[in-house]
Design a protein that fits this description.
Elements (H helix, E strand, L loop, with lengths): L1 H8 L3 H14 L10 H30 L3 E5 L3 E2 L4 H8 L2 H10 L4 H6 L5 E2 L3 H15 L4 E6 L7 E5 L2 E5 L12 E12 L2 E6 L5 E6 L2 E13 L6 E11 L1 H9 L3 H13 L15 H25 L6 H4 E6 L6 H12 L4 H11 E4 L10 E3 H7 L1 H21 L4 H7 L2 E2 L5 E3 H7 L1 E6 L2 H11 L1 H6 L4 E3 L6 H7 L2 H11 L21 H26 L8 E6 L8 H16 L9 E6 L7 H18 L8 E6 L4 H7 L5 E4 L11 H7 L3 E4 L5 H8 L5 E2 L4 H9 L4 H7 L1 H11 L12 H9 L5 H20 L1 H13 L6 H13 L9
Parallel strand pairs: 1-4, 1-12, 4-11, 12-13, 13-17, 17-18, 19-20, 19-22, 20-21, 22-23, 23-24
Antiparallel strand pairs: 2-3, 5-6, 7-10, 8-9, 10-11, 14-16, 15-16
This protein binds ligand 26Y.
The site of ligand 26Y has 21 residues, from helix 7.
Length: about 800
């Protein structure tokens, strides 16, 4: 028994090899000679998981006996990316595992490649939740991530004839070795029906909800290990199943078919992730999903509290819950309901507990992206919650009236219910009113939150508002994805403690002039570019010259992110080359990646435009020695990890005031790309950190944008006032990129000329001129490399560890609980 224990937990090469073979045999039922690549991956995953579970059990025991205050991160999305390589890094056994693999004659990289990533998120918000899970464990903060175990995550993107085609994601098809099903951790979730008054045993009048539909949520747990620590936190995702009691009723009346149908209906709830990163009105299933995971999570927290600490009056001392945008904002009403209706708390006590429990992070200012639910739908699905929302509103608006005597306009603006047109519940207002803290995700964004979106709330409760600038984890985005750069940094700094304390990379600054380091730096970048070029060649057929500047824009496709501004620049370069206007061109590879929401027509047309331009340019021998364009299909965490290390230039060109923070900007810069960007989101802070001389700034400020919009913006004037801009748009309309079809791109170009809501034309000239400066700078390779080193050296602030420490100190009031290895 002692021997087995050792095999499953030991960190030596021998232990890893033995456990790998055991897992291959006893879990996969295979031996080395007949194992398929996927069997080998599963055995490697289980071997790694064995080591996690040991640490997990220790963590859980310690947190329980210490009654550790715990952060619950409530998020509809966790965009985790592949687990295996990351867990090996966090365990500190990548090298040992590689050697063990060699001795077993395994292809280590091929095994890593086998893993299907869990794509349980759309983009920035979901990936932020995943970076935060890594940092919470690394910073030793006891935490539970709560979300939905979608059977189908974000769609896989294929490009066919230049268009995006969505393919369904089947990440669970071959099994998921990282999760542990907990069929006994199961909670009922109620929907529909009506409410009624009744008298309890003490003669008190109380409310009771008589729902018409009930399903179960079942827990699936994934252990999240921190880097170089024993701490393992829990990611608990809920799967929807038919409720046992409901099935039973149906069987009793002999309705077998009905019972099976009910099962299918129930399981629909956790079936698929909504592939939008902006709500389009009132999708009933989405509201059902939100209530589903919120209700399960809060019931679970209450159960944990009753089992460990005791009475619920101390609930808010044990737990603090962070709402990742408004998607879990129903929590405010659901916790009130659970405390009052199921646990007999008074309104005042329940409200006090609720308000002390929740904190809310806002991720967008775009008014069209703020969630509201029609009162009619809300009432039909969640009648008890609507009553509670009305009651919260009544208490709250009385407070408002007291503060702003006679100002009913104020009351109308702050109300939980929007009364203009169809009555709707404003989820952001519910989140602000029900939380003790509200934060934006970058300095500029948090200021705009206070001065525009939530100005009235800020006037009411200024102390509630915070900023926590986003960060990203250097484990996944440097160590896992860019091992060459990681080695270089460790060599240069003399140790690898920068991986847990990213401020330590500043040591690189003092070596920025070293020609030795510069040569190695350049070589690491070139090697990453070779790798990417080889991958892109087999994925798309397009060959890139690794010596060319790799100019990359990778992020969701959105008008506000302005991929079409980038496209206009490419058309400009093309025309200048064709007209012989460039004497000595700096070769560039323009690389794009990103998914469009399936129903977002203009975003999909932008993808088509990029691919159409690529087709012409890549096949024009007069220019294709100087420029190439490629759209990397299926941008996700896994493909992203290939992209960041290979970028020379990072495109962060959103219209100022629209990108709340951005996190890709940080990932690129951490990997030594220089940024061309506007003063938007975290770009502002990145530029401050790396120094204005190491950042290519262009375009209007958020204030400029505001003024121009007030003064009546006329894109038409720009189109006619700039002959190059006009020539670029006209060339797109000429049919050159569309086999003579002059109509294809008109929805896009007409929109730019006549409306241009994101002011592409107003920033065009500044962008083109800035790109010119970029090219000139790239000619001086020594200077470029120096800037690249300084970018990395100064990125310490943008580690998600720093963000988590700020939350822990300023918002959550949680201390680390170290777990010894
Ligand atoms: C309501 C539903 C359809 C929905 C689903 C996902 C709405 C929004 C989203 C996702 C939003 C998102 O990813 N926002 C991004 O959050 C990042 C992390 O804070 C920011 O860096 C980025 O600027 C912001 O656009």
């Amino acid at each position: 028994a002692a021997e087995r224990e050792h095999t499953r937990t030991g960190m030596s090469k021998a232990a890893l090899k033995q456990d790998f073979l055991d897992n291959l045999f006893y879990i996969q039922g295979r031996f080395r000679e007949v194992a398929a690549p996927h069997d080998l991956y599963m055995a490697a995953a289980y071997t790694t998981r064995d080591r996690l579970l040991q640490r997990w059990v220790k963590s859980a025991q310690a947190f329980k006996t210490l009654h550790a205050r715990t952060l619950c991160y409530l998020s509809a999305e966790f965009l985790l990316g592949p687990h295996l390589a990351n867990n090996l890094v966090n365990l500190g056994i990548t090298g040992t595992a590689q050697e063990a693999g060699r001795e077993l004659d395994l292809d280590f990289d091929a095994i890593l490649e086998e893993e299907e990533e869990p794509g349980l998120g759309n983009g920035g918000l979901g990936r932020l939740a995943a970076c935060f899970m890594d940092s919470l464990s690394t910073c030793q903060i006891p935490a539970i991530g709560y979300g939905i175990r979608y059977e189908f995550g974000i769609f896989d993107q294929a490009i066919e004839d230049g268009w995006q085609v969505e393919k369904s994601d089947t990440w669970l098809r071959n099994g998921n070795p990282w999760e542990i099903p907990r069929p006994k951790i199961r909670f009922p979730v109620l929907y529909g029906g009506h409410t009624e008054q009744y008298r309890d045993q003490n003669g008190q009048t109380r409310m009771r909800w008589v729902p018409s539909w009930e399903i179960d949520g079942v827990a699936y747990d994934t252990p999240i290990l921190g880097y170089g620590v024993g701490n393992v936190n829990l990611l608990r995702l809920w799967k929807a199943e038919a409720s046992e009691s409901f099935d039973f009723q149906a069987f009793n009346v002999g309705d077998y078919y009905g019972a099976v149908h009910a099962k299918i209906e129930a399981e629909t709830i956790s079936k698929v992730l909504y592939p939008n990163d902006e709500p389009e009105a009132g999708k009933e299933l989405r509201l059902k999903q939100q209530h589903f995971f919120v209700s399960c999570s809060l019931q679970d927290m209450i159960r944990l509290h009753l089992n460990t600490v005791g009475p619920l009056d101390t609930f808010a001392d044990k737990f603090v819950a962070q709402l990742n945008d408004t998607h879990p904002a129903l929590s405010v009403a659901e916790l009130m309901r659970l405390l009052m209706d199921d646990h007999a708390m008074t309104w005042d006590d329940a409200w006090e507990t609720t308000r002390r429990t929740f904190c809310y992070t806002n991720h967008t200012l775009l008014p069209e992206a703020l969630e509201t639910w029609s009162v009619a739908l809300f009432e039909r699905l969640l009648p008890r919650h609507l009553e509670i929302v009305y009651e919260i509103n009544r208490h709250f608006l009385d407070e408002v009236r007291m503060r702003f005597l006679g100002d009913e306009d104020h009351v109308r603006r702050l109300s939980l219910i929007a009364e203009d047109g169809e009555r709707r519940v404003r989820m952001a207002h519910l989140a602000v009113i029900g939380s003790k803290a509200v934060n934006g995700v970058a300095a500029l964004h948090s200021e705009l939150v206070k001065s525009t979106l939530f100005k009235d709330f800020y006037d009411l409760w200024p102390e509630k508002f915070h900023n926590v600038t986003n960060g990203v984890t250097p484990r996944r985005f440097i160590v896992v994805s860019n091992p060459r750069l990681a080695r270089l940094i460790s060599d240069c700094c003399g140790q690898d403690d920068w991986i847990r304390d990213l401020d330590k990379v500043r040591e690189l600054e003092s070596h920025a002039e070293s020609t030795d380091l510069q040569a190695q730096w350049k070589a690491a970048k070139l090697a990453a570019k070779r790798d990417l070029a080889a991958w892109l060649k087999q994925a798309t057929g397009v060959a890139l010259d690794p010596e060319a500047m790799f100019d990359v824009q990778a992020k969701r496709i959105h008008e506000y992110k302005r991929q079409h501004l980038n496209a206009l620049h490419i058309v400009r370069c093309y025309q200048r080359l064709k007209q012989g206007l460039v004497r000595d061109p700096v070769p560039r590879a323009f690389i794009f990646g990103g998914k469009a929401a399936p129903g977002y027509f203009l975003a999909k047309l932008i993808i088509k435009l990029i691919n159409a331009i690529a087709d012409v340019i890549n096949n024009d021998p007069e220019v294709n020695g100087f420029m190439r364009v490629v759209f990397m299909p299926d941008f996700n965490v896994k493909t992203g990890q290939r992209l960041y290390p290979a970028a020379d230039l990072s495109e962060q060109i959103s219209l100022a005031g629209k990108e709340a923070s951005g996190t890709g900007n940080m990932k690129f810069s951490m990997n030594g790309a220089l940024t061309i960007g506007t003063l938007d989101g975290a770009n502002v802070e990145i530029r401050d950190a790396v120094g204005e001389e190491n950042f290519f700034l262009f375009g209007m400020t958020a204030e400029d944008v505001h003024e121009k919009q007030m003064g009546g913006y006329r894109p038409w004037d720009y189109y006619h006032g700039d002959h190059e801009l006009k020539a670029d748009i006209d060339l797109i309309n000429s049919g050159l990129f569309s086999h003579g079809d002059t109509k294809l791109f008109r929805p896009l170009t007409d929109n730019l000329i006549n409306h241009d809501p994101f002011m592409v034309l107003a920033d065009y000239r500044a962008y083109i001129e800035c790109q010119h400066r970029v090219s000139e700078a790239y000619r001086d390779q020594q200077h470029w490399v120096r800037m690249s080193i300084l970018n990395v050296a100064r990125m310490g602030y943008f580690s998600s560890d720093r963000a988590i420490r700020e939350y822990a100190r300023n918002i959550w009031d949680i201390e680390p609980t170290p777990i010894d290895l």
